[in-house]
Write a structure and sequence with these properties.
About 40% of the residues lie in helices and about 20% in strands. By secondary structure, the protein is of the alpha/beta class.
């Protein structure tokens, strides 16, 4: 009889967020596949769990997925965990889950902590519709293109970001998204947890003034205006000018209506 693949969520900071079910499953399975055995070992030792571990990360995922699949076909139960939070959410694991499903092996998710959902709940932004985008591209032009593609999205946007890139990312959000409300959730569930709220420019200024920027970051962008105005920028500005609005005011209004920064609109006009 084939085994079972458990997808076990673990705490994102505060170890008290470990669920009773998650701890029990990690004790009972035959092996735990983890992103970093050093990180998972700290968790297991804290809860007195002695189950053996096997590494499963982006560099060995293809080979390790095949190995784990064979073990489950032989009747073993395997738990998959990431370093923190819910497995597969911006972490490796898709291949082994897909392979298990195709092989008829039961996949059981064990819910628990998620930085994206924790940040959304405490953000104060709309929660009726949201879109999780994982990590934005590391390179500036690709990151801006990704943001521009989401500019008309009428939902709260959620991203993960590294502390060494947060200032650049906030600058791009301000340029592309304009004055939409932004929240940066830092060090969630940990001692120094904080929520920074304001525009991208305001939050960037606050972080830039600090001696150092540390901690895991979740960035949330408030809802946009829904359907985008697809007219050329010059046409939209000219229409307002014909109605008696000054050019500078027209540019300001069009930028606000489209959810972009004025400087971004200036660049569009220069083109």
């Amino acid at each position: 009889m084939p085994g079972i693949l458990y997808l076990v969520a673990t705490p994102i900071g505060n170890l008290e967020d470990m669920t009773l079910r998650a701890a029990r499953v990690l004790r009972e399975v035959d092996a735990i596949a983890c992103e970093d055995t050093r990180e998972t070992r700290k968790l297991l030792e804290h809860f007195g769990i002695a189950t053996r571990m096997v590494s499963y990360h982006e560099h060995n995922e293809v080979a390790r997925a095949a190995e784990l699949l064979e073990r489950m076909r032989g009747g073993e139960t395997i738990a998959l965990v990431s370093d923190a939070g819910t497995p597969l959410v911006s972490d490796p694991g898709y291949r082994v889950v897909r392979a298990a499903i195709e092989a008829g092996i039961t996949v059981v998710p064990i819910p628990g902590a998620s930085a994206a959902m924790t940040a959304l709940a405490g953000s104060g932004l709309a929660t009726d519709a949201f879109r999780f985008g994982g990590f934005l591209p590391a390179k500036k032009m690709a990151r801006r293109r990704a943001l521009e593609n989401l500019r008309a999205e009428d939902s709260t946007l959620i991203f993960y970001e590294a502390p060494h890139r947060i200032l650049e990312t906030l600058e791009d959000i301000g340029e592309v998204m304009g004055d939409r409300p932004v929240v940066v959730a830092r060090e969630l569930t940990k001692i120094h947890e904080e929520f920074l709220r304001g525009t991208a420019e305001e939050i960037r200024g606050e972080l830039a003034a600090r001696a150092a920027i540390r901690g895991e970051m979740t960035v949330l962008i408030g809802k946009g205006g829904g359907v985008a105005d697809d007219r050329p920028v010059e046409e939209a500005v000219a229409e307002l000018e014909r109605a008696g609005v000054s050019r500078m005011e027209a540019i300001k209004r069009v930028a606000k209506d489209r959810g972009v920064g004025k400087r971004h609109l200036y660049k569009e006009l220069l083109k």
